[in-house]
Amino acid sequence: MVQRDRYMSQLKKWVDAPVIKVLTGMRRAGKSSLLQLLKEYLLTIGIAESHILSLNLESMHENMPSDHQSLYQIIKTWIHGSKERHYLLLDEIQEVEGWEKAINAFLVDFDVDVTITGSNAHLLSSELATYLSGRYVEITVYPLTFRETLAFRKQLSNIVEPDLEKEFLRYLRYGGLPGIHRISDDPEVLNQYLKGVYSTVLLKDVLSRNAIRDTALMEKVVFFLMDNVGNLFSAASVSSFLKSQGRNVGIETIYNYLGMLEDAYLILKAPRYDIKGKRWLETNEKRFLSDLGIRHAVLGYRDMDIGGLLENVVHQELLSRGYKVSIGKSGDCEVDFVVTRGEEVDYYQVCYLLSSTETIHREFSVLRAISDNHPKIVLSMDRLLAPQNSDGIKWSNLVDFLLD
């Protein structure tokens, strides 16, 4: 099993800390595998296997609990009055009704270290805030970054010296869900798998969980978001699009649907920040996709969308590195990404190629207009044409940046 070092380093740090570890993220992004990696780590540091219990709560096993009381009884029987520490690894906890009551009781009644996963942000955040306030840490798990994808490809496909440009184009087309590395490289098979993931997320984590009956309307909203990745966006623009399709839908309904899709981690919101005014703006945000492979399986791949696709890749990379990511407004200019972590602030511009003097001027001038001294970086697919440094603005090849 390929290690995912960024996540494992966080999990290791929190082992035996008096908090619940909560892994959240879209289905099939790798949360279950991280629980398995965590179990393997616990064994290496001397924890007896009899003191580690892993439960996949989506399983159809006849003894799998469906409510908090039955879950509590299973754990109580397993611990059997022991005073030693036990480790609970509970996958897809939202499948258990009232799960938060059981987790709270575990902390009160037993000496346990608890790690849980879930695929719905609203459910986890709302219930955790109510029952476990101040006693949990959330780690969002994203699909594989390009660097992680290469690690998977090298290990599972026996690739020794990968062609980086070719591998990146494959990543751009098929995304970073770990499961695609365990099936055929046949494009038809890959697309069928990705469509299946999309259907599962939409049905179980969006439509069923929110009791949405108008499946067609929700899919139209999803298709609009997929079609406009990397573009400034408003609920009004979605409403206008739906009206052109013969559906009159209110702005409030659009916002509700967007929230449901974000809670299922199918889409990721990038809020808009006024750099000069130092305030958050309420309109013209961007929405990115958790996984581009799903987009292309559903809509098809189009070369003309390359600018937005590259932005999507960089957005996910920055989130995976632990940054808070927004898009920026500086006067009349739009900054692709403003990223922060603690006191650290960086600005990024992303483009396909710096193929002309006009393009270079456009991308660099946006960052020159920002008067502070925080790092400013332009990312593109160029290898030789771009200047290495201009007015303190750094240029980097986008693929090299992803592998850094």
Architecture blueprint of SSEs:
Elements: H1 5-14, E1 20-24, H2 31-44, E2 52-56, H3 68-79, E3 86-91, H4 99-109, E4 112-118, H5 121-131, E5 136-140, H6 146-156, H7 164-174, H8 187-208, H9 215-227, H10 235-244, H11 251-263, E6 267-274, E7 279-289, H12 292-299, H13 306-320, E8 324-330, E9 333-341, E10 344-350, H14 357-368, E11 376-380, E12 389-390, E13 393-397, H15 398-403
Parallel strand pairs: 1-4, 1-5, 2-3, 3-4, 6-8, 10-11, 11-13
Antiparallel strand pairs: 6-7, 8-9, 9-10, 12-13
Total count of strands: 13
Number of domains: 2
> What is the approximate shape?
globular
Strand-pairing-aware structural class? alpha/beta
Task: Give descriptors for this structure.
single chain; 404 residues; alpha/beta; Rossmann fold; eight-stranded mixed sheet; 44% helix; globular
Structure commentary:
With 404 residues, the protein is α/β, with parallel strands linked by helices. It has 15 helices and 13 strands. The strands form two sheets. It has an eight-stranded mixed β-sheet, with helices on both faces. The protein has a five-stranded parallel β-sheet with strand order 2-3-4-1-5, sandwiched between helices. β12 and β13 (393-397) form a beta hairpin. The longest helix is centred in the middle third of the chain and has 22 residues, at 187-208. It is globular and about 75 Å long.
Question: What's a quick, concise take on this entry?
Answer:
With 404 residues, the protein is α/β, with parallel strands linked by helices. 44% of the residues lie in helices and 20% in strands. The chain contains 15 helices and 13 strands.
